[in-house]
Amino acid sequence: MNMIRERLIFEISDKGKKGFTFPELDVPEKKNLTDSIPVREDIKDFPQVSEVEVVRHFTRLSQANYCIDKGIYPLGSCTMKYNPKINEKVAQIENFISAHPCLDTKVCQGNLEILSELEDMLIEITGMKAFTFQPAAGAQGELVGMMLIRACLEDRGDPRKFVLIPDSAHGTNPSSAHICGYKVKEIKSNKSGTVDLEDLRKNMNKDVAAVMITNPNTLGIFENQIKEAAEIVHSQGGLVYMDGANMNALMGICRPGDMGVDVIHLNLHKTFSTPHGGGGPGSGPVGVQKGLEPYLPIPRIKHKGSHFSLDENYPKTIGRVHGFYGHFLVVVKALAYILSLGPDGLKEASETAVLNSNYIRKSLEKEYHLKYKAPTLHECVFSDKYQKKHNISNIDIAKRLIDLKVHPPTMSFPLIVHGALMTEPTETESKADLDLFIDAMKQIDREAKEDPDVLKSAPHESYVRRLDETKAARAPRLRWKP
Amino acid sequence: MNMIRERLIFEISDKGKKGFTFPELDVPEKKNLTDSIPVREDIKDFPQVSEVEVVRHFTRLSQANYCIDKGIYPLGSCTMKYNPKINEKVAQIENFISAHPCLDTKVCQGNLEILSELEDMLIEITGMKAFTFQPAAGAQGELVGMMLIRACLEDRGDPRKFVLIPDSAHGTNPSSAHICGYKVKEIKSNKSGTVDLEDLRKNMNKDVAAVMITNPNTLGIFENQIKEAAEIVHSQGGLVYMDGANMNALMGICRPGDMGVDVIHLNLHKTFSTPHGGGGPGSGPVGVQKGLEPYLPIPRIKHKGSHFSLDENYPKTIGRVHGFYGHFLVVVKALAYILSLGPDGLKEASETAVLNSNYIRKSLEKEYHLKYKAPTLHECVFSDKYQKKHNISNIDIAKRLIDLKVHPPTMSFPLIVHGALMTEPTETESKADLDLFIDAMKQIDREAKEDPDVLKSAPHESYVRRLDETKAARAPRLRWKP
Amino acid sequence: MSYISLSQKDKKEMLKVIGASSPQELFDSIPDDKKLKRKLKIPKAKTEPEIMEYFNQKAHKNKNNEYISFQGAGAYQHFIPAAVDYLSSRGEFVSPYTPYQAEVSQGTLQLIFEFQTLICQLSGMEISNASLYDGASGTAEAVLMASRINRKSKILVPKTLHPHYREVIKTYTKNLGLDIQEIKYDDSGQISMTELKKHLDKETSAVLCQSPNYFGVIENLDKISSLAHESKALSIAVVTEASSLGLLKPPGEQGADIVTGEAQSFGIPLSFGGPYLGFMACQKEFLRQFPGRISGETKDVNGNQGFVLTLSTREQHIRRERATSNICTNQALCALRATIFLELLGKNGLRQWSWQNLQKANYAYDLLKGIKGVKSPFSGKVYNEFIIQTEKDWADIEKGLMKKKIIPGISLEKYYPELKKCGLVCVTEVSQKQDLDRFAEQFKEILSA
Amino acid sequence: MSYISLSQKDKKEMLKVIGASSPQELFDSIPDDKKLKRKLKIPKAKTEPEIMEYFNQKAHKNKNNEYISFQGAGAYQHFIPAAVDYLSSRGEFVSPYTPYQAEVSQGTLQLIFEFQTLICQLSGMEISNASLYDGASGTAEAVLMASRINRKSKILVPKTLHPHYREVIKTYTKNLGLDIQEIKYDDSGQISMTELKKHLDKETSAVLCQSPNYFGVIENLDKISSLAHESKALSIAVVTEASSLGLLKPPGEQGADIVTGEAQSFGIPLSFGGPYLGFMACQKEFLRQFPGRISGETKDVNGNQGFVLTLSTREQHIRRERATSNICTNQALCALRATIFLELLGKNGLRQWSWQNLQKANYAYDLLKGIKGVKSPFSGKVYNEFIIQTEKDWADIEKGLMKKKIIPGISLEKYYPELKKCGLVCVTEVSQKQDLDRFAEQFKEILSA
Ligand SMILES: Cc1ncc(COP(=O)(O)O)c(C=O)c1O
Ligand SMILES: Cc1ncc(COP(=O)(O)O)c(C=O)c1O
Question: Is the complex ipTM more than 0.90?
Answer without folding.
Answer: yes
